Amino acid sequence: MAYGLIGEKLSHSFSPLLHSMLGAYDYRLYPLALDELAPFIKGNALEGFNVTIPYKEQVMPYLDDITDKARA
Question: Of 9, 42, 56, 69, which one is the catalytic site residue?
């Protein structure tokens, strides 16, 4: 199983370290430019990923489901 974090600048992220303590799965950082976002979302083989600034709103059209609170 593979998971990750997508965003623009991720060098400061502690996510891989934290996820290594949470479970035995691969968790990587995926720094992306805006023009790389859609192709990544459509073509990745990850089980799931977290999204950070500045792409939280840009990923919304690709979601299967979103709560009203998250949409707001």
Answer: 56
